[in-house]
Amino acid sequence: MATTETRPLNEVVFLTVAEVAAVMRVSKMTVYRLVHSGHLPAIRVGRSFRVPEQAVHEYLRESYVGVESA
């Protein structure tokens, strides 16, 4: 999943796995699975990952499932 808008790195806000989990209201393990499967882009900093905030918003927007009324 690539970001359609290219921003200078000094403007990109990176979130920790714990912060992403809090935003998405899922466990940290779920975030790790999304990162390792390639569904959520991330960079590795030492032994931890950082996820661009915009990528989280794009993932949630693309994953949204609307409920149709009968």
From TrEMBL:
It comes from the Bacteria. InterPro entries: DNA-bd_dom_put_sf, HTH_17, SinI_DNA-bd. Residues 14-62 form the Helix-turn-helix domain. Pfam families: HTH_17 (PF12728). GO terms for molecular function: DNA binding. This is DNA binding domain-containing protein, excisionase family. It comes from Actinacidiphila cocklensis. The lineage of its organism: Bacteria, Bacillati, Actinomycetota, Actinomycetes, Kitasatosporales.
